[in-house]
């Protein structure tokens, strides 16, 4: 009789299942033959001493493969969305910084134009020659540029951190796969 205790797939079981699927290609069986091909995969794995599950059926093997495939697709879509969101945020931040710079320059230009001499006439010639105004404008632009550079540095640092974390995860996954493959080779 059936034990009744549910047994989950291990990483090693998943690796063996995927290798067997690659070897047998059950989806290439043609009309009416696909489940027979999945049964061949299940029979091969059931005969293997390395496979920890007992009585694997064709449907269980197919469902597990479909679950692994869906999980991988979902992860890839999430990574793509995250990348797109970062790109949109970067574009938005740059546009906001450009807008702020434009506001500062416009305000200074308006102040300059609104200056009047005691007679009430605009003193455009005198204000355009004033070194103080140019120095102030240059200082504001320099500060804005520094803020923008700092924002970019933070953004690059965050992207670098994300890339390093993703690379560490890939290395860990690859190392786990190599351990499984090494274990498989040693078993044979």
Automatic annotation (TrEMBL):
Q: This chain belongs to which protein, by name?
A: Myb-like domain-containing protein
């Amino acid at each position: 009789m059936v034990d009744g205790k549910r047994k989950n797939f291990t990483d090693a079981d998943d690796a063996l299942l995927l290798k067997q699927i690659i070897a047998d290609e059950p989806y290439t069986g043609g009309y009416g033959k696909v489940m027979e091909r999945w049964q061949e995969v299940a029979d091969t794995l059931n005969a293997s001493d390395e496979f920890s599950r007992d009585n694997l059926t064709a449907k269980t093997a197919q469902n597990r493969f479909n679950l692994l495939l869906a999980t991988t697709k979902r992860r890839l879509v999430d990574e793509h969305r995250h990348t797109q969101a970062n790109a949109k945020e970067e574009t938005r931040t740059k546009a906001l910084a450009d807008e702020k710079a434009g506001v500062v320059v416009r305000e200074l230009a308006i102040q300059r134009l609104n200056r009047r001499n005691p007679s009430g006439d605009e003193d455009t010639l005198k204000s355009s020659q004033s070194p103080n105004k140019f120095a102030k404008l240059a200082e504001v632009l320099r500060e804005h540029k520094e803020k923008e550079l700092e924002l970019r540095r933070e953004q690059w640092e965050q992207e670098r951190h994300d890339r390093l974390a993703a690379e560490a995860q890939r290395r860990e996954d690859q190392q786990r796969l190599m351990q499984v493959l090494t274990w498989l080779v040693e078993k044979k």
